[in-house]
Every structure is written in structure tokens, then in C-alpha cells.
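cron nightly-structures :: item 1 of 1
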Amino acid sequence: MQICNEARREIAENGNLMCLNLNNKLFSSKAIKPLTEVLCNNTALTNLNLNNNMLGEYVGNSLAEALCKNTTSKNLNLGNSYSIDELAGKALAEALCKNTTLTNLDLCGNRLGELVNKELAEALCKNTTLIDLYLSSNSLGGS
């Protein structure tokens, strides 16, 4: 939790911060809340790396909401964030439909599954900005 609070403070105080790498910090889903709150209003951060964290279901709520509101983030790495479940996947898909700045999204190694695959596919048909999408090490098709 302390790392996310420090990151939130840094983003809020440093108006020029463009890249934030929180790779492998292993904070829990609730610890990410302070960070997502500032992402909604941040006007400089373009790259956020949350790879190898235990975000789980919380990704679907706060982070997806931040993606809908944030107008500067271009690169988001959620690789190996562990089990983005059906609800989280649906929320991310909805965010992809609304977000107008994200160009790179890494969802590798999240065990997305077939239901999330359908939601993401529908969202990608509507998204006009995403250029790179990484989905390796997911169970996207049938068995």
C-alpha cells in the first residue's frame, strides 16, 4: 500500500511525470486504488507498467474506470496480473470502447478465458486507437 501511496503522491506532485514503472511490486488489488484515483485526472503520465502484480478482480473496477477518464495514457502493461476474471474482463472491454488515447495494451499471462475473449473482441471492433495488443499465455479459445 505504501508504494501505491508514494506513486500517487509522485504523480500528483510531479506534473511532468510521464512514465511510471511499478513492475513486480506485488501489491494487492486494494493497494492499487490510490493510484487509479490520480490516473483519472493526470495530464502527463503516458506509460504505466503494472506487470507482475496481483491485481486480480480490482483491475476490472478502478483501473477500467481510470482508463475511461484518463486522456493521456498511451501504454498500459497489465501482463501477469493474475486472473483477470469475467467481470474484470468485461469492465476492461467497456473501457477499451470508451478510451481514446491508449495505443498499447499488454494482457499477457492473465488466464483471460473464452468469455473475456468475446468481450475483448467486441470492444476491439469499436476501439479506434489501440495499435498493439499482447495476449500471449491466455486461454482464449476452447480447450
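cron nightly-structures :: done
The chain is about 40% helix and 10% strand.
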